[in-house]
Each structure stands twice: as C-alpha cells, then as structure tokens.
Amino acid sequence: MRTGSDKLSKSSKRDTAALEVQMKDLVSAITYSTRCGITASPFSRVAMHQSFHSVLAAILTVGTQFATSSPMHCPDNPACSTEPRALYLMSNNANNSILAVNVAANGMLSGGTSIGTGGSGGNLISTMTGKPSQPDALSVQDSVVVAGQYLFNVNAGSGTVSMFLINPYDPTNLALVGEPKSSNGNFPTSLAVSLELSTVCVANTGSPAGVACATFNTYQLGEFDDLRMLDVGQSDPPTGPTPGVGDILFDATSSSLVVMVKGNGTEFTGYAAVYPVDVTGTVSSTCSKTTPNGTMALFGATLMPYTKSKIYTSDAGFGAVVLDLNNLTIPLSKTVVPGQIASCWAKISPYGTGFITDVAVNRLIETDLYSGAILSQYYPPNENVGMSDFQIAGTSIWTLSANNGSVPAVVTVFDISGGAGSAQMTQVYEVTGAGPNSMGLVIY
Question: How many angstroms separate the Cα of 432 from the Cα of each of 118, 134, 284?
Fold first, then answer.
C-alpha cells in the first residue's frame, strides 16, 4: 500500500492525469495542423479555443497538487519536447540490454549505447522448425515501454522486469533502478504502464501464464503481486508464434487493463481479456473474456486518439480490426491484407490512419480506421526480410527489422510529412548490438 503526504489521492491522480492527456491532445492537434501541413484537424479552431480554456481553468483549480506530484512540465525542459529524442530497442540476448540511439528532429538516427538490463532475454520455440524463433523471438507487442521518464522491459529468459530512469537532457543515458523484479509467471513478454496509477503490469505467456502488477516511483520498482492466471494455450517452454499473449495495455482512463490473447486457428481460440481497475487503482483479480467476431490471432493493440474505448488491433490471421471495449463482440471495422503472412504490429499516425507491419513481408500497410480500407502499401527499397515492432511520432515512422542473421538487424526510418499515403524511406540504420533476437522498439 502506498501512503504518505507526498502522494495524491487516487481520484486526484486520475483528475490530473486526465488533464494532462487532454492538454497533450490539444497541443498535438494544434501542432499537427499548423506545423505538419495537415488540413483537417480533430478540433476546429473554435473547439480548440473553448477546450483549451476549460482545461486551463481546471488545471488552475488543482494547480498546487499537480505541481507537487508530477514531473516538471515547462517549455524549456527537454523532457517536455514534442520532438522524439531517443530510440530504444532490446537486444533480447542471454545478457539482455537496452540499445539507445540518438534521434534528430527529422527522425534520422545516429550513435548508440548499450545498457544492461540485469536479466536474460529469451526465445519462443518455433512450431515450424523446433528451434528458437528468429526473428520475432517473443511474438508480441510492447516488450519495451516508455512512459514519461521511465523505461520498462521484459527479461523473458530470467522471468523478470527491469525499470530504468531516462535522463531528459541526454535520453540515451539510462539508469537501471534497483534489481529486476520477478514477473511471478513464466516467460514475461508484454508490458502495460499507467503513470496515472504508478503501476506497471506484465503478461506472462509461458506456463504458468497470466498477469501480475507492481507499483513504482523514481526510487524503486515494487514487487509484482500474485499472478492472475490466464489460459493462453501454452506449455513450458512456450512455443510460437501462436497461441499466446499478443499485447497488454491500459485503456485511455486507466479504468481497465486489456490483454490480447492469440488463437492458433485450430484447437485454441483467442480472446480479449479485460480486468477492471477499481477506485483505489487496484487491478481486479478476475477478468471478462470475449472473442470478437471473425478474429483469429489478436496481436498488437493501440488506443485510438480522441476516444475513450476504441482500440486498433492487428490480427496475425488476416490484418486488423477496430474494437470498442464497450462491446468487444462486434468489430467496428476490419482490414484484410492481401498476401499477408503475419500482420502482428499496429500503430496510429497523426493523420488518423492505421499502420500494420508483418515480420515476413517487407512493407508498410496503411489503413482507414473507420472503413477498414487499405489506403497504401509501401515496399521500401531495401533487403529486409520484414518488419516487426515500430513506432510513429510526429512525421516519422521507425520500424525494426531483426531479420534472420544473414541480413543484419536494422531500424528503417520513414518520412510521412506528406500525409496519408506519403511514406518514403529516408534511412536504414544498423544498430550496434541488435540481432535476430531483438525486440521492442520505442521512442522517447
């Protein structure tokens, strides 16, 4: 239990965190519409003006609590910059490490450092070869997560989670906080972080499988609580790419925790598991399970901006769907990708379009979130086998191609400043220390 005069009540933390989200959304809308050449914005000028002043008034009302409980938020603080400044991925080797790379304002990469996680990486056993799976060693989204000034990663081989503090003035300079903590399950692969709740939850995809959560602050990562058992159709050691955990994430208000579980198209049916979060910030020990109509292998999931309950989710069986947490049974839209092999990772661009990557097909798929239509297919002129983890920020996309050893592991940078359908490759960057086991690309 977290106590002390320096902590806000849960309701106050929810209020201030919600205000931060609203203000960030307003800033993003203004930034993208004025600096990125976007003609259509989620807010009209009048709506932005009214929303800005209502949010500002609310912030002033709770200003004292907000200032004493949150990290510094100011224009001259590098941590507040809207430009990405560092890229991180995980080596996922026996001696696991985070690889940190400098990111310029135009998205281009340079330099790089390696910081040990204190744990061991791991590989699923491929059901096709019987050998350690490469690339896509963990077959999951969000094995590394950045939230505020924190970076978290899984150590699948040692069954632990590590936490780092990011130096806002030199974000490639990470500080490991304490020792990695046990995930209380087997083969942890995916993470969800709520700054609002000061909580990180980890999904284990081995046997036993399930979800465990821990609180954290700048001084320590707490012990993970008892495992919330889940049937993900797995054994020990776990096999892949299916079945198993695809992703884990908090909803937009941190009032529920969602786990995407992949089916394998035969004897195991996948589902979305939803754990309620109570008013004290405690994640329930029980969940509801729903298999959305027509889905096969729910994988990477991302929240849709300006909504409270909608998520964009890839499906390794066919492409992607948009789901509403209020009614998971019926997808709001569905994208079927021609010639796909494993559509596993999903993100949303500032233009309101969806992107999907495939570990075995070297292309970017861009979709209309509301109709499911494919807007563009871009095949970059490089020798990569496919793309796995990726991130979008501003007018850049960064994709990880861990490849297969014969082709080196690289991060490819794309420019999307021209709007929907404009993706163009601008750089292929070989990250020192990356290889066919690498996973978990994130941006700070």
Answer: 19, 18, 41
